[in-house]
Design a protein that fits this description.
The structure is a single chain. This protein is mostly helical. The chain is built from 15 helices and no strands. Helix 1 crosses helix 5 and helix 2 packs across helix 3. The longest helix is centred in the middle third of the chain and has 30 residues. It is globular. It starts with a helix and ends with a helix.
């Protein structure tokens, strides 16, 4: 939970900071530099501490999962960066994350056999989707923090954000599959970015933005540490210890933080409707987390059952001595 909470906070900061940076640099330029830096750190860390054979083990053992993780990482992050060019960070954040729980409810039983969300989680997930629809409407009619939007910008921004949300949901589930297979977060981080690197560097170079790469290095370095490397490592740790639906719900706590942080951006106005939606979604997410927490609590034995409290059973010293520790 601590790792997922930290991820939510960093995700909010990333959306606000990246939303301002993509107004100055191409999203592909920022992605090319930041993901290259993250790959160097995690791949180098794994090579030094584990060796080449261990680094390649996830790709050999679970090739299809690694390919799926690469594809969902590239689609999710690149579409989100382009969405930030057109929409306010809080809307990108809440739409991208709010669709996650509902999609997890639909996809997880297929991608992870035997997994089944709770009834409360299912109801909460689809209620969140209703608030998502309100945010979509607000962006289309000009009631978001960026004010009046060109219809084409609003539609394209929301479409990109929804694609990012779908890809991110798959990302969480495939990360969990690799964790279930016994792979450490560091091992997964070492092999999840090649597809993103190939796409971003190819587009950046072929579009004539090579000269922009050096100028974007400071901004990309901040994104690499606080927006990509650390958050993805934290969510990989969180996924290892929770169910995907819990990770999706908990990760969606970042929209209120994004709403507050975006107030530092002079381009954006205060949007009360956005605030109402993100607070409502946050409360629903909290309810979903509590439902999962209560479900996973061990059932307390009844006082009248054989395993009830000791005060209802006569003491038997010999029996007590023979009880295994």
């Amino acid at each position: 939970m601590a790792a997922l909470g930290a991820y939510a906070a960093l995700s909010a900061g990333f959306d606000v900071y990246a939303g301002e940076r993509v107004q100055q640099y191409s999203p592909m330029t920022l992605a090319a530099v930041s993901f290259a830096l993250v790959t160097v750190v995690f791949l180098g860390w794994s090579l030094v501490t584990q060796g080449p054979a261990e680094v390649l083990r996830p790709a050999r053992a679970r090739c299809s999962d690694i390919l799926a993780l690469n594809a969902t990482t590239a689609i999710g992050w690149l579409t989100m960066l382009y969405a930030l060019v057109r929409l306010e960070p809080a809307v990108v954040n809440v739409v991208g994350l709010a669709v996650g729980p509902a999609l997890t409810v639909l996809f997880e039983p297929v991608l992870r056999r035997g997994a089944r969300p709770l009834r409360a989680e299912t109801i909460i997930s689809f209620t969140i989707t209703g608030f998502l629809a309100v945010l979509v409407w607000a962006s289309c009619v000009g009631r978001s923090a960026v004010g009046e939007l060109d219809t084409e910008d609003a539609v394209m921004g929301l479409l990109l954000t929804l694609v990012s949300g779908v890809a991110s949901t798959g990302n969480v589930i495939f990360s969990k599959r690799l964790s279930d297979a016994g792979f450490e977060p560091r091992a997964v981080m070492s092999v999840r970015f090649p597809m993103t690197l190939v796409i971003s560097w190819a587009v950046a170079l072929l579009s004539g933005r090579a000269s922009e790469l050096r100028a974007a290095l400071p901004s990309a370095a901040v994104l690499a540490v606080l927006g990509v490397g650390l958050p993805l490592y934290l969510i990989q740790v969180g996924i290892r210890h929770t169910e995907p639906i819990t990770a999706s719900l908990f990760s969606a706590l970042s929209p209120p933080l994004a709403f507050l942080l975006q107030l530092t951006d002079d381009r954006l106005l205060v949007a009360p409707l956005t605030l109402v939606c993100v607070v409502s979604i946050t409360l629903l997410i909290g309810a979903g987390i509590l439902a999962r927490h209560h479900h996973e609590q061990p059932t307390q034995p009844s006082a009248h059952a054989p395993g009830g409290p000791a005060r209802h059973r006569p003491a038997h010293p010999e029996h007590e001595r023979s009880r295994p520790l």
